[in-house]
């Protein structure tokens, strides 16, 4: 029997083994995640614990399943892998779309999926994220073994950087071939997303037009370019694979509260049935999951342990941030 991702009460486990239908446990019966690998999946509407199998059964007829993640969190990546398999068992016509690859590297990714290159070649050619092997290899390998298409869904990194520096007018300077890889209306926006973005990036300083610097505006437009590109990539996958169910993996900022990519999907295709699964950190001192304050963050929540604090020394943190951004790839935006 496959390893279970979630800890459940002894009573629930016994009833499951005997094939009896069990009442869903109350919030007080839910046990916190025991390690960085564990997640506690919850229905925020009822506060009930769910297994991955039960969640997959509920999502069997959904068009697009969006799993938000904290990049590099082991529990998030383990949940994605197990949900991918559970959804496939019910709906083998599946397509995996990923923020973690950019649209301009689709051919590099396809060569690997088709057996025309090795993993290290793909990692280099497709500009895979640094944590690809530790975090995303299981998803791609399951797709490769079962002939599941994998769609590189994110906007090209160099174009995103240049939009962040020069603004939306930068797209006018692109050759037509590059421009065609981007969506129509690449800066389409939705209500409330700007407020969330400014609070996350710059703190709660308000979002009145006069209060936003040009730099902040361009940074936000770069964010919109990512979200619009992912939304259009998902729609393209649905068009290219009729009847398929999309599993989309993305950073939780792009999907929580049904904003970002999810809101743009709704705006572009209102009839789509989209389910959002959102991670929430379970405070170490909490005895029960803090469901109420996150009830609207997703259709389903999964609670995970907080990540370790990176720095306790503010000066060392500032030095690390300077070094991190100082090593950012440079782009010729002229």
UniProtKB/TrEMBL annotation:
Segments forming domain Haem-binding uptake Tiki superfamily ChaN: 55-264
SUPFAM superfamilies linked to this entry: EreA/ChaN-like (SSF159501)
Composition bias, Basic and acidic residues: 313-322
A Pfam family hit: Cofac_haem_bdg
Protein's UniProt keywords contain Repressor: no
Keyword Signal in record: yes
Record region (Disordered): 312-334
Keywords: Signal
InterPro entries: Cofac_haem-bd_dom (IPR007314), Fe3_uptake_reg_CjrA_prd (IPR016773)
Signal peptide region: 1-21
Protein name as it appears in the record: Haem-binding uptake Tiki superfamily ChaN domain-containing protein
